[in-house]
Fold this protein.
Amino acid sequence: MAANFTCKPCNRDFKAEEDLQKHMQTSKRHRSQRCEACSRNFAGVESLEQHIRDSPAHNNATAPTTKPTTTTTTNNTPLDRFFRSFVSFAYNPSLPPAKSHGLLRRHMGWLKDSSEGDRAKKGYQDALVDEVRIWFGNENDLASWHTLCRAIGIEEIPETIEACEKVVRKTHVNILDLIHWGRGGGGDVGVQVFESWKALRKYTLAANKIFPQRSVVNEKGETNVVLRHLLRRFFFTRGGSRKARM
């Protein structure tokens, strides 16, 4: 059976959307797209086109004349589908996910104990988990590690998985920030890196950028490079174990 997702410039087929998105981010052939208006680089023509469409700063800008490079679009990701399922909500894909979720709750008038709001929150959290798997791949794939290294601002990208794991191991970053970085085209500027678990926790709770705990029951059984190596537990149960993660 033929693959469902094709990169036209490379003439390569991929079996899953996340594999194609990862290829678009890590392939050198797709890193040269630049927005001249704001001096940001994007992983491919399609990411640049989405940026121009969605950014308020480019309402009068003209999208590149080059034809889209893939058969998929980055504005049809799990988060996009979740937010667009609320037809009365004016969704802006360029906003950070946590910001969009807060605006959605305000728009719908959901209170803290709203059952409808709780169901929507679960859908939002499920979309976050799926989104991570699109933008960041398997820990056994060197390209996945290279994407993660670029996201956290590693200037000299290691050449082996073992070396990548070593430089990433003690890094403290917010996973929702990683998602937003991927959705923005994976530019040259990485996410904010924190000096300690305590500093990351303070930032995460203040910004309400909390990644759902239930996404990973046991890190040892997880294969995603981000979920396996960068989840951080923040809340504690009565028994003393950390409960929620980020």
Notes: The chain has three domains: 5-58, 78-129, 137-229. Residues 137-229 form one domain. Strands lie at 5-7, 12-14, 33-35, 40-42. The radius of gyration is 18 Å.
